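Worked example

This section walks through a single chain of length 244. The input is the sequence exactly as stored; nothing has been trimmed or padded.
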Amino acid sequence: MTVRRSAAGALTDRLEPSITDALLEALDDEPDVRKSAVEALSSREDPRVTAKLVDALDDPDYDVAAAAAQALSGQQTREVTEALIKALTADTDTESVPTHALWRRPFVRSAAATALAAHPGLSVTNGLLSAATDHASGVRQAAVTALRGRRGGAATTALLNALSDRERLVRNAAVQSLRDRTGPEITLWLHSQADNVAVEPSLLYAVAANASRLWATWPRDNRNELLSAIAHVTEAVTAPDRRT
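Given that input, the structure is written out below as tokens.
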């Protein structure tokens, strides 16, 4: 099995039709071989390959399915987008998933979220918004990262909500995804959370600093409110009872 897996991996840069045929046949092999074949097929523009990679999203081995999601990330056809959204939202009900699979299936959803980052469309945005509240922190982190490129109040609100996530990696991802955003949702969040002692001062500072950095791009009628929000944050986090 190791030899066949290595052989499949070694064929990544070989684009001859016969090599593609061999890799497609390898998709019926053992899990490790299937995974290597999926990875090797990712660079091929062939309708047969796309169809097989879409099928691999449902592979019983979750490592293979996650590799298929990654392999499809650059293909923005309707068929691929719909398949990735399906993978993103699959098995989110923990009661319907076998206990032994609970820690592995999220890998597929995380890979699907990452793959969908560059895919346009409202259905993609809605899928990522849902994934931002997934029970698995890795999925939430991937979705929050993927939301960086989505505009609109709903995406901004989801990112601001993620700043309260129980996992630091998700919170940090939210800060990064908010770096290029402006809008009233941010000033409202700063005002509403400035006095919330449960919110880390570093997060407040980070969001305020990002907003301040983008000062010139803010709508003129929102700038005074932004200044007020930043002043509120500064006063709140430097208060004696917030200093740590």
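What to look for: DSSP finds 14 helices and no strands in the chain.
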